[in-house]
Amino acid sequence: MNRIDLDDTDRAILDLLGQDARLSNRAIARRLELAEGTVRTRIKRLTDRRLLRFTAITDHRQHGNPEFAFLRIRADMRQAEAITESLRRYPQLRTVIMTLGNFNILAVGLFDSREEIGTITSDLLESVPGVQDVQASIVTRSIKYNERIAKL
Asked: 57-87: string of b/e by CB count within 10 Å (b at 16+)?
């Protein structure tokens, strides 16, 4: 993985925008005691390098009362890239992450029902080559959730 060099100013700008992405360049400059042009230039550089992106973060409850679940997938590592690519066809899966450990792919999704979770789990086992096992964990209560880390 490529090393990403950020200085304290870059991190401070990212922290402020992480708290409130609607802050103006002028407000950020004032808080950090910088010139507005410096802030503008750094934000442009961060977005050009794809280290910063502006998006609306919504609460998953906007979809009604979906089942929020994690699918832990054990996959043949020689086919992991193809498997993660095939997971794109499931719009319910909002996040797909490759991991280390007994299960090497984690998929996070919002589902209409528990039956839908079961159907997708079965489909993955039956129709995606290289998938060896799938275990679903259904969220019953969210204690702490940072939507900045895993947007649903």
From this structure: eeebeeeeebbbbebbbbbeeebbeebbebb
Instruction: Give the Cα separation of 68 and 10 in Å (integer).
Output: 34
Regarding beta strands 93-98 and 67-75, do their DSSP bridges make them parallel or antiparallel, or are they unpaired? unpaired
Q: Give the DSSP H or E segment for 16.
A: helix 8-19
CA-wise closest residue to 116 among 84, 93, 82, 83: 93
pTM exceeds 0.70:
no
Model confidence band, residue 84 (pLDDT cutoffs 50, 70, 90): very high
Token pair listed for 52: 């910063």
DSSP 83-131: HHHHGGG-TTEEEEEE-SSS--EEEEEEES-HHHHHHHHHHHHHHSTTE
Q: Report how far residue 59's alpha carbon sits from residue 151's, in angstroms, rounded to the nearest whole number.
A: 9
Helix, coil or strand: residue 79? helix
Distance CA 59, CA 126 (A): 32
C-alpha closest to that of 100 among 82, 125, 80, 130? 80
**Chain position carrying tokens 């096992």:** 133
